[in-house]
Amino acid sequence: LGGHPNRPTVLDNLANALSDRAERFGDTTDDDECMQLHHEALSLRPEGHPQRCMSLNNLANAFSRRYGRLGDTRDLEEQVRLHQQALALRPHGHPDRALSLNNLAVSFSHRYARFGNITDLEENIRLHQEALYLHPEGHPDRPASLNNLAIALRNRYHRLWSTEDLEEYVHLCQEALSLFPKGHPKYAGFL
């Protein structure tokens, strides 16, 4: 079964289950096995494999979850590195580029929250701006992209006190809210 084409998917699924269990019960052996399984899945999807990006994202997300639980900055750095690799596999025009942009932006946001390096915040904003560009009016993911960029600009406003960031933050929130009629399940959250 070692060469079965679905093995990487099964490995990722088991790794995700172990990660959930580690989160629930705090067992670091589950974390270790989760990472080992994601690494194995990635090794079965070498350079040029059409699903490599998925394995990179799965492993990066596992590092992100473990960082959230344990706070080890090596996990934070690894998640950034893996999301950068995944984004490189989704060039301009790729239908999932916006997803990879968002994943990497979130990684930079986590790193900014930990270290306070303004260049991480600037990269977070740049990536969210590009993702928003890929979600034009009428796109179902536009509200989330507007919200993500608004939060990033709010963070920069709180850091630099730029009224331009504050005004853009308000504008993006208003636009996001305008995409949901009153009574929509998401209206209150965007309000």
Describe it.
The model has no long low-confidence stretch (mean pLDDT 92). This protein has 191 residues and is an all-alpha fold. Helix 1 (7-25) runs parallel beside helix 3 and helix 7 (142-160) packs antiparallel against helix 8 (163-178). It has helices at residues 7-25, 28-43, 52-70, 73-88, 97-115, 118-133, 142-160, 163-178, 187-190. The chain has nine helices and no strands. The protein starts with 6 loop residues before the first helix and ends with a helix. It is globular.
Task: List the keywords.
191 residues, mainly alpha
Rg (CA only):
18 Å
Shape: globular
Return the average pLDDT rounded to an integer: 92
Distance between the termini: 51 Å
What structural class results from the helix and strand content? mainly alpha
Low-pLDDT runs: none
What's the story with the biggest beta sheet?
Answer: none
* Strand segment count: 0
The amount of helix comes to over 70%
Strand fraction equals: under 5%
* Tally of helical runs: 9
Order of SSEs, N→C? Answer: HHHHHHHHH
